[in-house]
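Marked as duplicate of an earlier ticket. Keeping the data here for the record.
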Amino acid sequence: PSKPGAGEQRLLADRVYYEFATDRAILLNAVMHTVDPARQVPFIVRAKTMRQLSKGEYESKNVQLTSSAFAVPSYSIAADRLYVRAEATGDPQFPQVINFEGTDATFQAFDVPFFYLPVISGSVGDRPGAMRDIAVGHRTDQGYGFLSQWGLFETLGQIPPRDLDAAYRIDYFSKRGPGVG
């Protein structure tokens, strides 16, 4: 059973090899379900191979991260490799922070990649991730537009300092062209 306030946590896999003495495991074709207790947002990780390196520490290969339980999620982040570590914060509002680092990451919509990052990292539980906001719209004076806001440290593959947050925007409008700021 999970600790109070830790949220739901489930692991499913085709095969599991577990070493009780060291709390290490290898899971094949694994699906991990967890819920952020502060915001009640589900996180689902699907991986071809998932290793539990220790309690609260995982490394996955051929992985997909999403908040959708559907087999083909609306939005997801896919990566060649993803390292995840959970840390207790001592803060009752955010009892744990989940730090992640990944390589060869693609943002996907319905399994179709639309943005690539060679490295990605960040944390879940105390601040937003690499992609902060995304929108598509139309205005008479600017035309059709794609708007996005990104976390600077997370985009550069770094875990942000606890007391600092930096973000930037990448936008495109059909009548005005690209915009960065």
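See parent ticket for discussion. The chain has a mean pLDDT of 81.
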